[in-house]
Specification:
With 142 residues, the protein is mostly beta strands. The protein contains no helices and 10 strands. The chain has one domain. The strands form 2 sheets. A 6-stranded mixed sheet has the order 4-5-6-1-10-9, with no helix packed on it. A 4-stranded antiparallel sheet has the order 3-2-7-8, with no helix packed on it. A hairpin with a 5-residue loop joins strand 4 and strand 5.
Length: 142
């Protein structure tokens, strides 16, 4: 599928506790959703948002890689009390504006014009051809 995906977190990788409101405007269409941090489930999960975009609150992870010469493995463990947000917008919006409020304080008010890369998930010459864009939004500290 064509989509834009972005992460949202403070520079230190944390998110502030309390009431959160995220408003996304993609090519003029606006949607808002609200949630509380930390999430009820330690594993995070999806936030109930209007159609048009998805927002997930996921535990931050610390990963280590090992290589025995023939196999490389990666082991990841959650970092207690740290989460990140992942925003996904279906389609290829030319501009994405994200605003996040935490406990009434604006932590983010930023617009991106994301670049997109064409991918062929089923291999060269096979449909579909998808456009994938990504970005990162850095929330202000409190």
């Amino acid at each position: 599928m064509d989509q834009f995906t972005a992460t949202l977190a403070r520079a230190d990788g944390t998110l502030p506790a309390g009431a959160q409101t995220v408003t996304v405007t993609a090519d003029g269409a606006t949607a808002t959703c609200s949630f509380t941090l930390p999430p009820a489930s330690p594993g995070g999960g999806s936030v109930d948002c209007p159609s048009g975009f998805q927002l997930f609150v996921l535990p931050a992870q610390s990963c280590t890689s090992t290589n025995d010469g023939s196999v490389e493995t990666q082991t990841c463990t959650p970092v207690a009390g740290r989460f990140s947000e992942q925003l996904t917008i279906l389609g290829t919006p030319a501009t994405v504006h994200v605003m996040q409020m935490s406990n009434g304080t604006t932590l983010l008010d930023q617009t991106l014009a994301p670049p997109y890369t064409k991918t062929q998930p089923n291999g060269p010459g096979c449909d579909p051809i998808c456009s994938q864009g990504s970005g990162a939004f850095v929330l202000a500290g409190m």
